[in-house]
Design goal:
Length: 250
């Protein structure tokens, strides 16, 4: 068995649809840590919104904000947007009507209007933040209907088809995954990666075993070397039970 690291995405992959971790999932990851497996996480979310999951799973490292921040045992790697590119991106998005814009920054989360479920600081003109603190991610909902002439040093993904995310080109989950593995002296060939969305594609393809949950987007399922049951069926945990021949009671 060559897998020495398990890497998981959170939303729609490890977490159930109600955003909880099942007892089976917690038991499986506890067993894996006791066996000496390196447990890693890779999420599009900021650190503050996954803190409870990190405390429950205790991963050895974690990619957050699609790779804009990678939390390693002794340091944090950061890839924020350049101030110029952040400002230009916001300018372009602000020209499109009926969009809610928001930003993940070093100082907190800001939005152009209230978003009750996220509780941002509301600032109608977000461009003032681009020169005063690191901007890790710019978000727009709904996504623009047409491609935008964005700066060359940024890229975009769309989460669940409803939320445009703009990051620096160096801020990718795949880069963060490689940095995490390198920190523990491991190669991608020694890792199994679980994901569901387009920002998981590079890692699904690049790791030794790339697994898509059954509720993943079709391109992710097509790229995966194996399929697991859905997130609501504890697909990741059940796949790991079979892969590592665990004896875990539910």
């Amino acid at each position: 068995m060559q897998e020495r690291a398990v890497i998981v995405d959170f939303d729609r992959t490890l977490l159930r649809s109600d955003k909880t971790l099942s007892p089976l999932t917690l038991s499986v990851f506890r067993f894996l840590k006791e066996r000496g497996l390196c447990i890693l996480a890779a999420t599009a979310r900021p650190e503050r919104s996954v803190r409870s999951y990190l405390e429950a799973l205790r991963p050895d490292a974690c990619v957050t904000l699609n790779g804009a921040r990678t939390l390693l045992p002794r340091k944090v790697l950061e890839h924020p947007l350049s101030p110029e590119s952040a400002d230009r991106t916001l300018q372009l998005l602000m020209e499109i009507p009926d969009r809610t814009l928001s930003m993940e920054c070093a100082g907190g989360f800001y939005a152009s209007r209230a978003i009750p479920e996220w509780d941002p600081v509301v600032e109608p003109d977000l461009r003032g933040r681009t020169k005063s603190e690191h901007v890790y991610k710019i978000l727009a909902s709904p996504p623009p209907d047409i491609p935008l002439p964005l700066p060359e040093d940024v890229y975009t993904t769309t989460a669940e088809g409803t939320l445009l995310q703009v990051m620096d080109r160096k801020a990718t989950k795949w880069r963060g995954v490689q940095d995490m593995l390198s920190a523990f002296g491991l190669s991608p060939a020694q890792a199994v990666y679980f994901g569901d969305d387009q920002d998981d594609l590079e890692s699904i393809r690049g790791c030794g075993l790339g697994v898509a949950v059954s509720n993943a987007l079709k391109p992710v399922r097509d790229a995966a070397s194996a399929l697991a049951l859905s997130n609501d069926e504890d697909g990741v945990a059940r796949f790991l039970v079979d892969l590592f021949h665990l004896e875990v009671s539910e």
